[in-house]
Amino acid sequence: MYSALLFALPILLLAFGSIKAFDADDRVVVVGALHGLHDREPAFGYDRLRSAIVDFRPDVLVLEVRPDELAEKKPTPGRPEYPAVIWPLLARMRVDAVAMEPGGDRYKEITGQAGAAFAALKQRNPAGAAALTRLDEATDEALLAYWQTPGQVQDEKTAAVAAGLQSAQFALAGPDFAAAQARWDGYMASQVRQAVRDHPGKRVMVVASYRNRALLDRVAREQAPQRIVDARAWVGKAAAPSAAGAN
């Protein structure tokens, strides 16, 4: 009898541990917002972005803004989803918000390096610079034509199209621009990695963009693969506009 109990004890302890792990809500999801395209994409408009955030009930929101933008809830040129959706949500949610973009001198250095690289491109190859502008616009048009469901915004095909545009930028704007982009991406990756690492047992949502979501999803998966929720499935399930309140 005693031997049978001793044999069963590790199994019981393992079962209790599994129940505890199952009950702990420590999910991590990386969602790509659409910036100015939310107004033009009915499959993933502002209401659907709002519902995807509210329904996830994050304890931590990692946001594609600078620290000063987050602290002061500033206007965010090129990212209208912040005044339209995220700033109002932060006013009513109990959530820790983390700025993903660099600020201060680092922001000035990186953006200055990238701006100088594009200025140099316009000088030496104005046709190439103009072609990049057209390609940027055409990329968005192609994605708008492709997106038919919320989950497609978060899928591998969207990531591949965005990566193709960036490859063209690297090829034409040159190594200085590529180095600036690497510094920018590296900083954001470190913020995501730290947010996931420093919040065990918490729900973490990263609000990236449709252009860098795949990169930041890889970073989160490397840090905590067992916690990741597939963004395509989540947005497809949770993106219908909801009247549910924030946590």
Keywords:
247 residues; alpha/beta; four-stranded parallel beta sheet; disordered N terminus
Helix content: 55-70%
Give me the Rg, rounded: 21 Å
Estimate the strand proportion.
Answer: 5-15%
Q: Which structural class do the helices and strands define?
A: alpha/beta
Order of helices and strands: HEHEHHEHHHHEHH
Average pLDDT confidence is 89
Strand order of the largest sheet: 1-4-2-3
* Beta strands, count: 4
- What oligomeric state do these chains adopt? single chain
Q: How far apart, in Å, are the first and last alpha carbons?
A: 49 Å
Shape: globular
Low-confidence stretches: 1-23, 242-247
Largest sheet: 4 strands, parallel
Please tally the helical runs, counting DSSP H or I stretches of 4 or more residues: 10
Model description:
The chain is α/β, with parallel strands linked by helices. It contains 10 helices and 4 strands. The longest helix is centred in the C-terminal third of the chain and has 23 residues.
Please give a quick description of this structure.
This protein is an alpha/beta fold and 247 residues long.
List the SSEs and their pairings.
Blueprint: H1 2-23, E1 28-33, H2 46-56, E2 60-63, H3 67-72, H4 81-92, E3 96-99, H5 104-124, H6 126-146, H7 156-173, H8 175-197, E4 204-209, H9 213-223, H10 231-238
Parallel strand pairs: 1-4, 2-3, 2-4
Helix pairs in contact: 2-4, 5-6, 5-8, 6-7, 7-8, 8-9
